[in-house]
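Work through this protein:
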Amino acid sequence: MATPIESIELRMMLLKSLNSRVEIVTNFGLIVGEVFQIQLFDVPVDYVILKESEDSFILIPFFSINSLIIVEKEGDL
């Protein structure tokens, strides 16, 4: 489980990555998607929402994230 400091650091990285394409590695596998703005949903602060496609969203708890890779930042070509 992520410590409070690790959760804050991860949240800061994810907030900087809003609308960017990322890969998140968990114990269950690799998840690829766009970091979605958390404020639009009633989600606890220690979760991230990834948009996989127009109709598919995934809610990932911070404690299950092993690594975060930014694939494409918003605005990159």
Q: What stands out?
A: The chain has a mean pLDDT of 82.
